[in-house]
Amino acid sequence: WKDGLGFCALIHRHRPELIDYGKLRKDDPMTNLNTAFDVAEKYLDIPKMLDAEDIISTLRPDEKAVMTYVSCYYHAFSGKQKAETAANRICKVLAVNQENEQLMEHYEKLASDLLEWIRRTIPWLENRMPENTMQAMQQKLEDFRDYRRLHKPPKVQEKCQMEINFNTLQTKLRLSNRPAFMPSEGKMVSDVNNAWGNLEGAEKGYEEWLLNEIRRLERLDHLAEKFRQKAAIHEAWTEGKEDLLQKRDYETASLSEIKALLKKHEAFESDLAAHQDRVEQIAAIAQELNELDYYDSPSVNARCQRICDQWDALGAMSMKRAEALQRTEKLLETIDQLYLEFAKRAAPFNNWMEGAMEDLQDTFIVHTIEEIQGLSTAHEQFKATLPEADKERLAILGIHNEIAKIVQTYHVNMAGTNPYTTINPQEINAKWDKVRQLVPQRDQALIEEHARQQNNERLRRQFATQANIIGPWIQTKMEEIGRISIEMHGTLEDQLTHLRQYEKSIVNYKPKIDQLEGDHQLIQEALIFDNKHTNYTMEHIRVGWEQLLTTIARTINEIENQILTRDAKGISQEQLNEFRASFNHFDRDHSGTLGAEEFKACLISLGFDIGNDAQKRTGIMDADDFKTCLISMGYNLGENEFSRIMSIVDPNRMGIVTFQAFIDFMSRETADTDTADQVLASFKVLAGDKVQYCRALQENTSCY
């Protein structure tokens, strides 16, 4: 009672028109209870004695309340049942007959419809036309599933209902003692069952065919997709490969680039061999697709054929490129060897030509004819090497011509120049032509220089001839004048006369000196700096000539001063001769001068008392020496007096006193001979320089 279906069943049993029992649901008790209570109240006059919510909310409804309410149903239906029983009995027979007729008609209709449906369905199930795509087959499978899910179940129910109706009809007829029902021909239950068996056989075959076709199409789709992927990968890999293999980049490549291209091509060939398996797989997949009757086999076969053709073409082009690269490598190696040989021979030859040009253009500076003859000899030796050098040049050019011949014969497109050298044949020929041009120019320059050196040699000989005469003549005259001044032949006046005659003869020799000066000027203009034919230079001659003039003039002056000294001091000729004899005796080298020891010995021989002193004899006295000298001679010197004297003998305040200043000072202080001798002796002791003393003595004879 709790779900309300019991109440509704009571009502439906007695008044089925009031409630559609088939639409009630067990899981909706509230609707069931309210429906029963409302219908009972409205059509059966049974009041609502129960509440639907109370019944649902309680674990077990109140039994007494339910029984009381149900009893109301009994009283409502029992009175009506008696009245209807008679009518029902009357109508029952009619109803049974009518129902039997309806069952017969319904069976006929169901059997006809079912057989017709089977007739239409079996051809559809027996249709084995394969589809080309998995999508179409999937649609067929979906249609078949719809058939089993939507179309066949109602037919199964109809067949079941038909069999139920047939059995029910036969039972009713048998119970009513009526003859059994015989369906129309071909519509027996057995006929329907046979047709249904055929339907299920066709259905099973169709299902198996669908599954097999789907598996086949799956396999085909898988193979087709695999074919497409492998073909796409292969086509992507081969894209641009034909252009790469057809490139003629090796025609302009260097040897190193060719070797790199060969390495690259070897790698490509390895890659090509590795792709051989993929091509074979593609062909095998295409073959399998053909065997499985793939719908798009023509396009697969066409694509596979293109791949195979392209693969064969790639193999042929790869082999052709490999041969071209190897051939080019050999040619370039040959050319490279020739380049290297060219460079090895061209470099030294080029250096030789540059050195030759430098030597031929070099400005030579020679000073003798021997030097120019040496240059000429070397130049002739150089010219003798020119034929051999020309052979070397032709050999080097022959190497280049061989390279050009290879390039022209094998159509090698050289991309660059010789990598081993920057020297080219044009440069070699240009330098060789330059050398050939410079050789005659050098010949002419050597000829001109040889003529100039011959002229210079003539000037040297001309100058040497005169210089070798004038030089000894000056030397001879110097010696003769020295002998005149040293030797004591005749009086001083005779010596003076003789010297003046010498002076006149020397002056008359001046034109020869002037002529030699002219020759020397020519030598200078010719830039001649040495002369092997003479040891005399113009400077030597000039110095000798000036010394000669100075010596003769000084000797004449000395004789004149001796004459003045002799006359002023009353020195006799015998004294002078004694002085000269002593001087000449100690002048052992006949130089006309005395050394320190010679002068000391000379003074001692003349009676001077020369003591040893440790002073350094410089020929000059400093202020202290001079002061000591004056004190030794009896001067009583104070500081002011000494300063006055120093200002006379040393006006430049250098702190020294020369012999000339000393003699001049003493000549003003005293003219007494004894005092002069004392002064001289003091000077000799304190100054001590014999050479300076002798020179001072010679130059200050009058003071002495």
TrEMBL record:
Residues 1-78 form the Calponin-homology (CH) domain. The keyword Ribosomal protein does not apply. Gene3D superfamilies: 1.20.58.60, Calponin-like domain, EF-hand. InterPro entries: CH_dom (IPR001715), CH_dom_sf (IPR036872), EF-hand-dom_pair (IPR011992), EF_Hand_1_Ca_BS (IPR018247), EF_hand_dom (IPR002048), Spectrin/alpha-actinin (IPR018159), Spectrin_repeat (IPR002017). Keywords: Actin-binding, Calcium, Coiled coil, Metal-binding, Repeat. Residues 574-609, 637-672 form the EF-hand domain. PROSITE patterns: CH, EF_HAND_1, EF_HAND_2. Residues 258-292 form a coiled coil. This is Alpha-actinin-1. It comes from Characodon lateralis. The gene is ACTN1.
